[in-house]
Amino acid sequence: MLTWAFLPSAQAAPTLDLTTAGSSGFVNGAYFEQDGNGSSGTGTIMSFVRISTNDAVEEGYNTDYRPLEFDENPSPTFTRSLLLSDVPIVNKGGIDYREFRLDINQSGGSKSLLSLDTIEIYLASAGNLTGYPASLGTKIFDLDGGSSDNWILLDADLAAGSGGGQDMTAFIPDSLFVGGTYVYLYSKLGESESSAYPNNDGFEEWSVLKPGTPPPVPVPGALLLAIIGTYPAIRLHRRKVA
User: How far apart are CA 234 and CA 29, in angstroms?
Assistant: First the structure.
């Protein structure tokens, strides 16, 4: 008699591993970095979508429309429309990027890791749209892009809790932001292969720096240019989890 043994498949490595302090890399033309420095409190940032659920998989996008569609916090303080003019432009290595910040919350220790599986950015002429994805305007960025299935691994332990510092900064090429005055950012977290890095605590929040807020100390120009020049070959190793 034949006996079949079903073995779990190996966990696929993330496209980009940001579980080391200061780590960074490119995915689909955008630049991402782990940066726990600087406050992410309300005095320096403007939150535009807070995803509030303890479900393993969470998702949401910013809008003024109510009721909200997914796991967004309904308070207009945390989930609201975002004008393109309010998204800072940052120059890195001679390239202009739009800067977005992500603050995550997870249980500590061995449960601190969280997968960021989807980022989609849309442009539209109004800030109160609803109906993902067809009714959010024109998509101008997708973390996956084409037939790829890209995802980023994050570690909540690298920043000092809610408001203590952002866990990831996303730099999306400014050249993509054509065709609308309002920005919609949809994201999904906790849905990596085999659900190895689910959401387990607190909220996740996207924000931008308020006007007049000094940016964090930039990566030295020579180092950044070296990174940009070699980013197709960048492959960061996933940290082993006990």
Answer: 12
State the total domains in the chain.
Answer: 1
- Has residue 34 been placed in a domain? yes
Convert the pLDDT of each residue in 81-105 to its tens digit: 999 999 999 999 999 999 999 999 9
Examine residue 238 and state whether it is found in any structural domain, yes or no: no
Residue 9, in any domain of the structure: no
120 near 133, Cβ under 8 Å?
Answer: yes
Q: pLDDT of 33-59, one tens digit each?
A: 998 655 555 568 999 999 999 899 999
- How many whole angstroms separate alpha carbon 169 and alpha carbon 95? 16
Q: Please report whether residue 4 resides in a domain.
A: no
Cis peptide before 198 (omega within 30 of 0): no
- What is the DSSP code (8-state) at residue 214? P
Q: Which residue range forms the structural domain that includes residue 52?
A: 16-232
Question: CA 22: distance to chain centroid?
Answer: 16
What gap in Å lies between CA 42 and CA 79, rounded to an integer? Answer: 13
